[in-house]
């Protein structure tokens, strides 16, 4: 399509028909550039995702390295490490501890080490994380982040994608920002995880996991940046709107994660490790490798209530 590339196109009312210029700020405007002394940073896109070199994650993590890792994650929202061949479960636990306490997804099979969940997919256990989501948004204090390690990968495919939801917010039209300002939404695991449970199982999990509410636009706990915080499987309705208004608005908002300029895609190799900021991004595990085997290990990091 021939267009004048110098002229940004205005946002149209249809979210996926907003073409042309995008605002792609990596950090909040005015933030200082960080100088890294230990880490090598190779950006995978201008605003989300960087491959990190200069670190062996099987070695003890000192204070200076921990500080740079936290800063790199805050700035890039998802960071990747390759060839971590000596990275074992105890290193996985130590790496997650750079950010906080491990938090186990209540619905995942347990791994051998406390806090480590093993996600093994094959012809019998089909991958079902191929929907844009934030981990544990159905909890009152959703996970701050996750650390994922590739144990076994298919010969091709099995990539994961992440979408920058601060940038997604920035690119909403001003009228949409005004419309969602101050709204809260209900997050609930029942429509997704509960779909394969008996009524008895649902009732048992419900005792500790009732529906929760979060602002539709949250302030990131560290950067203070505004983040669009609704996701397809777990956000069930917007408080105070009619069912149809809520559905229509949610349908539009959850589509934002699908816009390619907001995303980064990572191709796994055995012993690749990714860490993501679970408040700033959503992710999507591409399920194109069936019936091959793909085995990942994950630790989520406990979060704080969002505002
Ligand atoms: C997840 O949704 O946490 C799993 C991501 C992946 O397996 O790539």
From TrEMBL:
The keyword Transmembrane does not apply. It holds the Pfam family TauD. Residues 41-299 form the TauD/TfdA-like domain. It comes from the Bacteria. The keyword Ubl conjugation does not apply. Keywords: Dioxygenase, Iron, Metal-binding, Oxidoreductase. One of its GO terms (molecular function) is dioxygenase activity. Belongs to the TfdA dioxygenase family. This is TauD/TfdA family dioxygenase.
């Amino acid at each position: 399509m021939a267009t004048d590339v110098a002229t940004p196109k205005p946002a149209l009312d249809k979210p996926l028909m907003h073409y042309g210029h995008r605002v792609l700020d990596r950090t909040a405007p005015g933030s200082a550039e960080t100088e890294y002394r230990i880490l090598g940073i190779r950006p995978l896109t201008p605003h989300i995702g960087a491959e990190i070199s200069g670190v062996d994650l099987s070695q003890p993590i000192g204070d200076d390295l921990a500080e740079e890792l936290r800063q790199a994650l805050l700035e890039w929202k998802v960071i990747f490490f390759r060839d971590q061949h000596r990275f074992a479960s105890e290193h996985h636990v130590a790496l997650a501890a750079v950010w906080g306490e491990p938090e186990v997804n209540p619905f995942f099979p347990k791994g051998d080490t406390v806090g480590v969940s093993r996600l093994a997919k094959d012809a019998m256990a089909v991958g079902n994380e191929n929907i844009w989501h934030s981990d544990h948004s159905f909890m009152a204090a959703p996970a701050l982040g996750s650390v994922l390690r590739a144990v076994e990968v298919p010969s091709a495919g099995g990539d994961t994608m992440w979408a920058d939801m601060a940038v997604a917010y920035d690119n909403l039209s001003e009228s949409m920002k005004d419309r969602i300002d101050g709204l809260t939404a209900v997050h609930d695991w029942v429509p997704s995880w509960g779909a394969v449970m008996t009524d008895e199982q649902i009732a048992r999990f419900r005792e500790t996991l009732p529906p929760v509410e979060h602002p539709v636009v949250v302030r990131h706990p560290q950067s203070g940046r505004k983040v669009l915080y609704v996701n397809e499987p777990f956000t069930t309705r917007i408080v105070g709107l009619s069912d149809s208004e809520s559905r229509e608005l949610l349908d539009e908002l959850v589509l934002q994660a699908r816009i390619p300029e907001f995303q980064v895609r990572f191709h796994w190799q055995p012993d690749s490790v990714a860490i993501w900021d679970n408040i700033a991004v959503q992710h999507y595990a591409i399920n194109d490798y069936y019936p091959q085997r793909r085995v990942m290990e994950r630790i989520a990091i406990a979060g704080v209530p969002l505002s």
